[in-house]
Amino acid sequence: MHFLDYSIVLVYLIGILLIGFYRRLKKDASVSEMILGGRMLTLPAFVASLVSTWYGGILGVGEYSYRFGISNWLVFGLPYYLAAFLFAVFLARKARESGLLTIPERLAQTYDQRTALTGSIIIFLMTVPAAYILMLGVLCEQMFGLSFATGVLLGSVFSVIYVFVGGFRSVVRTDIVQFALMFIGFAVLLVILVLRYGGPEFLSANLPPQHLTWHGGNSGWYIAVWYVIALATLVEPSFYQRCYAAKNPAVAKKGIFISIGCWALFDFMTTTSGLYARALLPELSNPVSSFPALAQAVLPVGLLGLFALTLLATIMSTVDSYAFLAASTFGNDIMGRLVKGDNRNIRHYTNIGLLLATSLAALFAIFFRSAVDIWHAFGSIGTPALLVPLFFSFVGRRRLPAGHAFFSMIFVLALSLIWYLSPQLTTDGNYWFGVEPIFPGLIVSLLIYLLFADEEIE
Question: What is the pTM of this model?
Fold first, then answer.
């Protein structure tokens, strides 16, 4: 990168810090003000924040598109649109009308405190932004010449430092800027690629045939697994947080519908860019770096810096949101239940949670070294434990007794974890019976609900 490119990135980093630090939380601010910004999220802010937060896995999308082509849309696009649609139809309005702050509060309201505490721990681990910290490390390594560890450290600091002083409002303000940068950078990249190399004809002539098939060389079962993993959207803390923070229920529901359209447009741009990366750079040793490598190969000085901002903004918008979700879960829902205190104690524990979540994210990133593997692992283990108890706490009239909900969550979590680790226990290195771990967990959880749920008494 040229000095001009680095200058553009530096200006962005300084600007995002200034925006994030603007208007510190008052010392006497309520927990609601810290976690939800006073429930005043307007429709444009709702869409910008949700879209940018939920699309932080940009390098993972590049990795999958580079390896498997247009099937990226069937794995990381369509199933998540469908799940978001279900959330908008069944949960968005009810979540906002509930007047709650967090998912565990709903678990406590419907079941009991031990179920809420168990759910809090699961949510904390699922929102630790490991996949996105990993991507920051790869991006800094690829585009800025830093070591992976240095990239992880610096990226984490710049992504979360303003959350300490501004809470949820800082997250939303920076998300709006990052939302704009996401679309601008990929639009510029695609225009240059099409003008320089051509459109569909170029891709058809330079891609492996399987990259233009719906499956990309993977089995139908493998793709089907991602449709089940996408159901994690129904327990997605960032969705609930935005709905709880929305100005009214209509903003929450309408905002998700608009967001689905934004994700579809962005998926078109990212998947197409991934195809160009495979066509132009077929010998990449690390597909996670496909977008940075493509940009370095085709973009001139200045525009390369702009695209670096696009990747940084896309990832950072998710790191700060998920780190804050993990932190607020730790402060309000874990420590808030274990240690009684006032708002100042919760803010103190939330700051501790922010440090803990960021540190755990770095450790997980170093251990896995693949964003797709992280999504698969945490989605396969956490989703089955939470999905049925949480979904039916909002939908329908049948509710599990508190004891059964607690048992279901603990048993299904253990089952999914052991099943996920089963390749270490088998001679062929495959999951037991060749079944992905998310399926037995969900089946058992649903059976417990069907067998033991009772009609709720008004």
Answer: 0.88
